[in-house]
């Protein structure tokens, strides 16, 4: 783990002590990720085709077709389970059950990852139920196992392809939805991909989930607990997205960390009747 990431985690822990345990787990798991060197075989030979796809609103890849090193992810997944099951956690027995499931069925992790990438929520819920694990925990661990491949793929793609202005609410690289946004120092809004972490510019007065641009149906409210955080919402589709205002916040952690440690804002949005 880089010193910069470690410093970010420590800084957020001081700012939001309620997330100390979650950040400690994240910090440990990131250490395992740094040991993996996945092989990414990405064929991006025809730039013209990708430019046409971008103009027509198609991402470079679909989630299901991402050229990820699944074998590297599959080998990492049980290591994450072993580490967490060694801790005093409420779901410790469920994590041990997941390890047993993997040993008895070598294809289980492969199916779990396929369901995760295809966004088959029911299949993920069924697999989580088999081992008495919360579906969100299962998805989090799958995502963590895939991260080394996702990080390298994002780097490779962005070096080879220039993303043209992208006026869509889904990621131009993998087609996934955004999980958090930020306003830069000039007030421009950027969305952060929930899967690969790519960031792209998106109009402030436009809902990324239903493309509604009626200002009368769009709005935001701020967090009273911490300056610089707001929740942008759309009354047409009843969706919201957490937003970090970098004109106010000088020191920002990675957007992934900010998303993980602002669940209190999600609860606030739910209380106001919005859903993600």
Provide an overview of this structure:
- This protein is α+β, with helices and mostly antiparallel strands and 276 residues long.
- It has 2 domains: 17-160, no CATH class; 178-271, no CATH class.
- Helix content is 46%, strand content 12%.
- The chain contains 10 helices and 6 strands; from the N terminus they run ααααααααββββββαα.
- Strands 3-2-1-6-5-4 form a 6-stranded mixed beta sheet.
- A hairpin with a 5-residue loop joins strand 1 and strand 2.
- Helix 2 (20-33) crosses helix 4, helix 4 packs antiparallel against helix 5 and helix 4 (70-85) runs antiparallel to helix 8 (135-160).
- It is globular and about 55 Å long.
- The chain starts with a helix and ends in a 5-residue tail after the last helix.
- The model has no long low-confidence stretch (mean pLDDT 89).
Short description:
The chain is α+β, with helices and mostly antiparallel strands and 276 residues long. It has helices spanning 3-15, 20-33, 47-55, 70-85, 92-104, 108-117, 121-130, 135-160, 255-260, 263-271, and strands at residues 178-183, 189-193, 199-201, 218-222, 229-234, 239-245. It has two domains: 17-160, no CATH class; 178-271, no CATH class.
List its salient traits:
276 residues; alpha+beta; six-stranded mixed β-sheet; 10 helices; globular
* Average pLDDT: 89
Q: What gross morphology would you assign?
A: globular
Please report which band the strand proportion falls in: under 5%, 5-15%, 15-25%, 25-35%, 35-45% or over 45%: 5-15%
Estimate the helix proportion, in percent.
Answer: 40-55%
Question: Order of strands side by side in the largest beta sheet?
Answer: 3-2-1-6-5-4
Radius of gyration: 19 Å
The count of helical stretches stands at 10
Number of domains: 2
How are helices and strands ordered from N to C?
HHHHHHHHEEEEEEHH
